[in-house]
Model the fold of this input.
Amino acid sequence: MFNKTKLISTICLISLFSNVYGKEVLLEELINIAVENNSNIKISKYAEEKEKASYNLSKTDYLPKVTLTGELARYDIRSAGTKLKDNDVTGYTISASQLLYDFGKTSNQIESAKKNLEASNFETVKNISATVLNTKQAYYNILNNYQQIDLAKESIRIDELHLNQADNYFNAGIRTLIDVTDAKLQLSNSKLTLIQSEYNLKNSKTKLISILGTQNSNNIKIKKDKKIKTEIKSFKKSDFNLNDLLNIGLENRAEVKILKKQIESQQLQLKNSNKEYYPTLNLDANYSDKNSDDISSIDSKQATAGVYLKWNIFTGNSTKENIKISLVNLNSLKQQLVQQKLQIKEDITSAYFKVKENEESIGIALLNVKLSADKLDLANQRYKAGLNDLVEVNDSKLAYTQAKSQLIDTYYNYLNSKASLDYSIGVIY
Done:
C-alpha cells in the first residue's frame, strides 16, 4: 500500500531543505535539520522498531498455534526378518495448541517487552537531546569564529595604520628602521592569526555538517551575529535556583527514565525466572488421516483433544541459575540508576556554575575591552607626540585584541554553557 505519511514527510523535508539552502539559516532551522537527519537518532529509531516488533511478538504467545504436516512415505514392515507389508503411505496431520494458564509468565513477558519498548523510546529522546546540544554548540562555535575573523581583520587594519605611520616617521628621519620592522612583524602576525581563524571556521563548519547528517550541508550558510558589543546588549543574568534545577533534571532526564523502565522490565524477568518452577496448562488437539492400499493398520483417521499439564520437575538447576542471573542484572541496573543520578547532579551543578562564571566574566571582559581600547588610544597619541616607541603601541594593541578575543570567547562560552545547562536538566529544544 502507498505510504501517505512517508510521502508527506518527504515533501516537508524537501521543502525544508529548499528553504535553507542558498540563504542564511537560524539555529532553529539547523536543529530541525539535525533532528531529521542525524545518524544516531535514526539508529535509535530503528532500535525502537525492533523493540516494538519484540513487544508484538511476545503477545503472540496468547494466540493458538496450528501446524500442518504432510506425509508421503514408503513403509516396509517386517517381523522376525520376514517381510509382511510393503506399500506407499500418504497422509496429513493437523495439530493445534492453545495456552490456557501459565501462572502469569506470558503476561509478565509481554509487560517486560513493553517496558523495553518504552525504554527504547526514551533512548531516542536522549539522542535527540544530545543532537540538539551538539548542534547548538557547533553553531555558537561558528559564530565565535566569525567574530574572531572580524577581530583579526580589525587587528590587520590597526597594524597597517601603524606601519604607515612608522614608514612616514622613518622617511622623515624622526624614527628608526626598527619601528618599521616591528610594525611589519606585527602585521605579519595579525595576518597569520586571520589565516588560523579562517581555518578554525572551516573546522567548525565541518563538525556541524557531521552533526546535521546530510550530504548537502556544505550549501547551508550560517547567519552571522552583529558586532559582539551589540549582541551583549541583550544579555541578562539568569535567576536560576540550583536546587530547583537538580529536581527538574532528575525528573526529566531521559537516562533516568531509560533505567527505570529497564529496572521494571528486569523485575518482571526475575518474576518469570521464579515461575519456571510452576507448570503450564495447554489445550492440545490433533487430527491425522493416513491412507495405504495394502497396510490396513495404517489406513486410518484419528482425532484427539485434551487439556494437558506440563511440569518440568528437574531442569538441571537451570531455573536456579536463571534466577541468579536475573537478580544480578536487576541489582546492576539499580546501581547504574544510582550512579546516573549522581552524574546528572554533577552535570547540572557544573553547568550551573559555568553559566554563573561566564555571566560574571562578561561584565569584566567588557570593562577590559574598554580599558585596553583607551590604553591603545593613549599609546597612539604618545607615539605621535614622540613620547614612546612602537613597542609600547604594539603592546597596547596586543592587550586590546586579547581583551576583545576574550570577550568573544566568554560570550559564546556563556551561550554554550546555557545550552549545556538546558541539556543537563532534560530540556530538548
Summary: The CA atoms of residues 155 and 401 lie 7 Å apart. Strands lie at 24-25, 65-79, 82-101, 221-222, 280-291, 300-310.
